[in-house]
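tool_log.txt
---
The assistant was asked to compare two proteins side by side. It first ran the structure predictor on the initial sequence, then on the second. Raw inputs and outputs are pasted verbatim so the downstream comparison step can read them without reformatting.
(1)
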Amino acid sequence: MDKENCLTTGQLAKRTGITVRTLRYYDQIGLLSPGGHRTGSIRLYNMKDMERLQRIQMLKYLGLSLQKIMDILDAESPSNGEIRHSLQAQLDVLQKKIAHTEHVVHAIRDAMEMSAYVRLEPFGGCYPNRAE
């Protein structure tokens, strides 16, 4: 491995904005193992490792779990169908979240509109707003 084109954990963390702790955790669980080591326990990440990290971050952004990301990346040759299926599942989840959020926003607006006309009493009954 050409150590000239490699980054240490700290250098990779600084360049990507990912914490050293996260990179070490990814190594610990086998999600992103560095391509080499220098004397001692200094990890060296090569270009292939950096590309894998970029794919990890993209899939993580889409909301996939680390285990699912590992399954996708570690498949011998992840088929377009497998990746497409995972992406479609994430899209479905996000669309449901959007629909739910829109429903909540609508309910809040309705409640705000209603509160302009009616004061709700804590122990039952609704009374029109009146000067007190």
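(2)
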Amino acid sequence: MAAAQLDGGGILMVVEIIRYQLAADLAESFVRAYQEAGVYLDRSPHCLAYEITQGVEEPNHYIIRIEWDSVEGHMQGFRQEENFQHFFALVKPYFSSIQEMKHYRIIRT
């Protein structure tokens, strides 16, 4: 999926970071839910990539990192798609464990 080009050739892309702190008994179902929900991210033209990471020192901490073509592509694009309804149904049970959910721009890779 191609990202939108800005004047000067830059990429208009943002990274959504979602940080979770989960109870130990939720970890397995959480990972499974996001793996299943990834199907709907893959179907969206606005989602460029995503990953699920687990803390090494604190294994009950997880970060979901989603690359979007833009904030608008995420908020007004994906969230209006049928894909979002399926995605949200899978991950909603874990929303009370969210510590942070924000968009970031990449400064340097």
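---
observation on (2): The longest strand covers residues 14-21. Residues 34 and 91 are 7 Å apart (CA to CA).
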